[in-house]
Design a protein that fits this description.
The chain is mainly α. The protein contains 4 helices and no strands.
Length: 88
């Protein structure tokens, strides 16, 4: 579940669990992520880890889209700088 749509008047949404595991993978590394995943009781398909890795590679794009959607102009400027440094 996610509270990200709170600003649009929605209380929560149901999303891909890989989104939540992205922070574990990014902050603590693949080894720790694999240990946590061993104890996760939810569904994990063959593309679960690949979705996390893809989201990490594209995080600046997701963050920029979020900043546009919710009108965070100051954050958007930084995300555009991050995109340029990462992809150019």
């Amino acid at each position: 579940m996610s509270w990200k749509d709170y600003y649009k008047g929605k209380l929560m949404t149901i999303e891909d669990a890989a989104t939540d595991f992205q922070s574990i993978y990014e902050d603590f590394g693949e080894g720790f992520y694999q240990e946590v995943l061993k104890h996760y009781a939810g569904p994990v398909d063959n593309s679960f880890t690949r979705r996390i890795q893809t989201r990490l590679r594209a995080c600046h794009l997701f963050n920029a889209a979020y900043a546009i959607e919710y009108g965070f102009a100051d954050r958007l400027k930084q995300h555009l700088i991050d995109i340029e440094s990462h992809f150019c």
